[in-house]
Design brief:
alpha+beta, globular, 1 helix, 35% strand, seven-stranded antiparallel β-sheet
């Protein structure tokens, strides 16, 4: 198991994730980040113009992937 972190970039600021989550693979961590992005987008109070991005970092701090939060909850993603 490896620890992955999911900081969120929103309105020009980064909300750090100092705890992270344990996953057996980077693929599972990327899937989790997609769910986070989808959950954010489905919030009726979400600011659609905020440019929100969920980032996936491994335990060494390397970026694994990022998911842009899109209106309507689709949570489009990109691998790193």
């Amino acid at each position: 198991m490896r620890r992955y972190y999911f900081p969120i970039f929103h309105n020009g600021e980064t909300q750090a994730d100092e705890v992270g989550e344990l996953f057996g693979s980077a693929e599972l961590a990327v899937q989790y980040s997609a769910r986070i992005a989808k959950d954010i987008a489905s919030d009726p109070e979400y600011d659609r113009g905020a440019g929100t991005v969920v980032i996936v970092l491994d335990d060494s701090g390397a970026e694994v992937a990022r998911h842009g939060v899109e209106a309507g909850g689709s949570g489009g993603g990109e691998g790193a």
